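Obj: model holo form, ligand = zinc ion.
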Amino acid sequence: MSDRPPHSASALKTTIHWSHDDSPKVGLILTSTHGLALIASQTILAGEKLMAFDGPLHEWGRTTLNLPNTPPYYLRDHCVQIDEGLSRDSTGLARYANHCCEPNCGITDLIWITAMRDIAPGTELTWDYAMTEDNDWFMHCSCGTPGCRGVIAGYRFLPPERRAAYEGFLSDWLTASHRPYIGPATATPLPAA
Ligand SMILES: [Zn+2]
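Output (holo structure tokens):
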């Protein structure tokens, strides 16, 4: 489409799809440090909805922390959790948004990646995966922010001060349930893919 932002030739070597829900203010680049990344291609204002997990639903069953009933890897990597045992993929750019422990975007209405503050052109668009997930998933993080938690896991591992900072940008399915903070996530070996 003519209103799509420019993206790198290298990124085009992968199969990238665009959704009608993707804002024309979102650009896709291939970084030398952490693979594909989404950036603001022009000024984004706080509250703007940028992209959505608007794709197929995947039900992977109910799970309890530390039980082997975890979401499959393709769900961990590309989908957003919208209820207990239920994830949703995107048909566009949302699945490429990277995690950051001090992000500039959050989640609204379960599926929308939305700007939490004004964002300057060229800035990477990030969200905190603990804003939506609460299952056995975890990952190591090296986002480099002062608040980097090192190991990222579900909402129950998200500290109270972060929850407060994310007010209005946490997934409704998490805030509607009682999920107290249980302490920092611990680094344990990732299971085989
Ligand atoms: Zn981090």
